[in-house]
Amino acid sequence: MSLPELWFAVIAVLWIGYFFLEGFDFGVGVLSGWLARDRPERRVLINTIGPVWDGNEVWLITAAGATFAAFPDWYATLFSGFYLPLLAIVLCLILRGVAFEYRAKRADERWQRRWEHTIVGTSLLLPFLWGVAFANIVRGVPLDADHEYVGSLLDLLGPHALLGGVAAVALFTFHGAVFTALKTVGDIRVRARRAALWLGLASGALGGAFLLWTQADRGDAGSAVALAAAALALLAALAANARGREGWAFIWSGTVVVAGVAMLFLALFPDVMPSSLAEQGTLTVENAASTPYTLRIMTWCAAAATPVVVLYQAWTYWVFRKRIGTQHIAESAH
Amino acid sequence: MDLALAPETLARWQFGITTVYHFLFVPLTISLASLTAGLQTAWVRTRNEKYLRATKFWGKLFLINIAMGVVTGIVQEFQFGMNWSDYSRFVGDVFGAPLAMEALLAFFFESTFIGLWIFGWDKLPPKLHLATIWAVAVGTVISAYFILAANSWMQHPVGYRINEESGRAELTDIVHVLTQNTAVAQFFHTITASFLTGGAFMVGIAAYHLARRRHVAVMRTSLRLGLITVVAAGLLTAFTGDRLGKIMYEQQPMKMAAAEALWETEGPAPFSLFAVGDVDEGHNTVAVEVPGVLSFLAHDNFTEPVPGINDLNEQLAEEYGPGDYRPNVPLAYWSFRWMIGFGMASTALGAAGLWLTRRTLWLSPALRTGEDEPPRLALTRERELGPALTNWYWRLALLTMLFPLIASAWGWIFTETGRQPWVVYGLLRTDAAVSPGVSQGEVITSLTVFTLVYAALAVVEARLMITYAKAGPPELTEADLNPPTRIGGHGGGQDDDADRPMAFSY
């Protein structure tokens, strides 16, 4: 494996980590809008991800930073080309973060309601926008010979991209429902399990259609294997959920996310930004990569730091392993 | 949409607005993390409840502040690619590395441990819980180092070569990039200025409460911690600023000549106190100066010549081809003065406070005060300030509590606009750095949206800050005083307190 190939894999792993972790906290955010029946239940949902959502989000920051360092051209083309969708993503991330932190800082009913709506809205929009972005990355967008994006906003909103967006919303909400069932007690846990069944079926239909379309378009043997793995994991997750094995259901729903995102990266390889115009516009693992010296340094850093990061993040989940219910939420917590 | 604007103008405004805004939260985050950690350390060591109440109070303000710092930081990382894609292509091989390292080594650390600290009061034994806030504090400082090393490379590129074929910068020596004198000097100057900011913030709020004789025990301690921080950090900021200035005289003489509106080379060079100039003609019409001082600032002696703007402009034109290499001189001149002025004023006020509130040194026993009364402001051994003057001191401390923030904002405006027309000094001009594929309309959209959202959030944030600052430290609960003895909470896995409410919840 060459260094640029290794870094393609590292970036894939960072995105997989991001979607595995932030995926369920997007889902919990969406579910706080309709699975929870009243304020205490909404707060139960929000607090299942309270201590961890910020750490989850850093996987995105690191994925973007690693892309800048390892594939400057990929970073430059992607971020300038997808300008308005990324603007929307950044705004959602800003409002969502502030909503978590500030919602409980005032007792005022309207204030809290407003931030709760913000959490639901941004948690819906973000997976949709990421789904659209990744569908476009994999399928290819109009890039000229200088690798500049020459399409319009509408070119990013084709049927394949929109399907990708909807599929991402369904999948992450499913993942979030399974996580909710694992992390709560009482009535809401039962409802989360029931919702997970329907969300799982919707994910299967939408995600299946999207990945099969992608496979037909650009897939190879590797991506086909990942697609099959995602499908099997979804069945396993649904079975575990039906039997009330919530830990297993979460492992399997996580595997769906991992395999699904891996499928997209396998279909993308060896390109990083294929051009839908002439061949020479395409950015590949080789022509977009940084120098071997930079990649070597980054490899040392990543090899040293990543295991430690995974260890202390896993420890955080262990510290907050207790299930929570409405009885654990104090009346007025500021 | 086509405007009669240079393509980089809007992108520069956006970068300026979002960066100055982001940096309103950064210095407070850096300093309050450590100051809160210090207070919590005092609590764990002494079990004196005033320290825990102080920890909870300042910790709350710290959290309101860091939330904004975190979310506005995402914009910073994204906009290099969005608005400055040609910059990103040119520097990515060098500049991306410290950014990725910052995420990997600092952001994960900060963001994970902040969650543990916020929600961990009833989950972690006291010493372990204390370690999490120190981890956050260390994370903020590491983060500052990497991002300042990246910025220093824009100020003074080292450890690279230009690839003739691709025309891009390529990293050859990461150690040099991370340890060059610009990076070290910028780091220390920024960190000390951050602590000046946090100290002044503490002093201002403590003064507000002490003037009203409220929460005296906690606020006395906070005042003292704040005043010591202000004076120590203020002096160090001046010292590190002087070092950084001398480095800049070598590396970017044009920036420093502009900072002094020194049009012609002079030796000995005077320090300008006030000037009104004519930029087109290249001279000042009014100037109030102190002879020799600029030579000292640049070279540590009072006679050596300091090159002027007009000569430097000719030199640079010879080196890099015809063109105007002058930054916006009035902006550089005034931003440099506002930076120093606001910073110094804050330090002076802190020094005055430290003297006035001394506890024993050259102080008559009659003027000494106990833990539960506000300090009496003693001018000399026997004399204290009258009630009117005392009140004025508290009021001034409150009014000036944001001075270091203003100074920091001007400092960044100075160093970034003073480097123009370069984005990477000597290598890449700002007008060659923007995204060629992004339309003016798109930049206007994002500039407008960011400005509006940021303005609205500023109001929200400021109101919360004021509410919590006025409310004062919270009363302690039973749970606060009986922290868990094992990880995961009191009973571990036992049922006796399975339904106990969480100590903190959103």
UniProtKB/TrEMBL annotation, chain A:
GO terms for biological process: aerobic electron transport chain. Pfam families: Cyt_bd_oxida_II. The chain crosses the membrane at residues 6-36, 82-99, 119-141, 161-183, 195-215, 221-240, 247-269, 297-320. Keywords: Cell membrane, Electron transport, Heme, Iron, Membrane, Metal-binding, Transmembrane, Transmembrane helix, Transport. It is found in: Cell membrane. The keyword Transport applies. It is a multi-pass membrane protein. GO terms for molecular function: electron transfer activity; metal ion binding; oxidoreductase activity, acting on diphenols and related substances as donors, oxygen as acceptor. InterPro entries: Cyt-d_oxidase_su2. One of its GO terms (cellular component) is plasma membrane. It comes from the Bacteria. Belongs to the cytochrome ubiquinol oxidase subunit 2 family. PANTHER family: CYTOCHROME BD-I UBIQUINOL OXIDASE SUBUNIT 2, CYTOCHROME BD2 SUBUNIT II. This is Cytochrome d ubiquinol oxidase subunit II. It comes from Streptomyces radicis. The gene is cydB.
From TrEMBL, chain B:
The chain crosses the membrane at residues 20-45, 57-75, 95-119, 131-150, 187-211, 223-241, 336-356, 392-413, 443-460. It is a multi-pass membrane protein. One of its GO terms (cellular component) is plasma membrane. One of its GO terms (molecular function) is metal ion binding. One of its GO terms (biological process) is aerobic electron transport chain. Keywords: Cell membrane, Electron transport, Heme, Iron, Membrane, Metal-binding, Transmembrane, Transmembrane helix, Transport. It is found in: Cell membrane. The keyword Ribosomal protein does not apply. Residues 477-498 are annotated as: Disordered. It holds the Pfam family Cyt_bd_oxida_I. Belongs to the cytochrome ubiquinol oxidase subunit 1 family. This is Cytochrome ubiquinol oxidase subunit I. It comes from Streptomyces radicis. The lineage of its organism: Bacteria, Bacillati, Actinomycetota, Actinomycetes, Kitasatosporales.
